[in-house]
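Quick illustration, no need to memorize.
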Amino acid sequence: MINFVYDNSLGEQRIPLIDQEQPMLRRWLQKVAAGFGFAIGELTYIFCSDEKELEVNRAYLSHDFFTDVITFDYTTPHCINGDIFISWDMIQANAAEVGTTAENELLRILAHGLLHLTGQADKTPETKAVMTDKENKALSLIQR
């Protein structure tokens, strides 16, 4: 099951893509996972503010910096389970910085978090390049 939830740190903010396209997003994420030999068990995307993301980063990872995505991995062999925190503030800022829409950046980050749960790392320039390639392949599977 794939869940999309809003943390109360966003107040009344909503994300149209999430509110309107959940069935399509679920099918797409399942297809991406299957491409890596995984089924999806329990996967929750939590949309929050920069401040909440920083709080989570400090509390659970001992990192004192802002980030767009934090992935908590509970995956078992061939079954993805996890919680993925996504900063909606950071998604919008990143989109403006790279000249794309917030929707496109959000799709990339949805895939990015899922790819972490399949074992993909992005700590070095080489693994970042591989991650970007896999994100692009995942994005090519979207059928709207």
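The chain has a mean pLDDT of 93.
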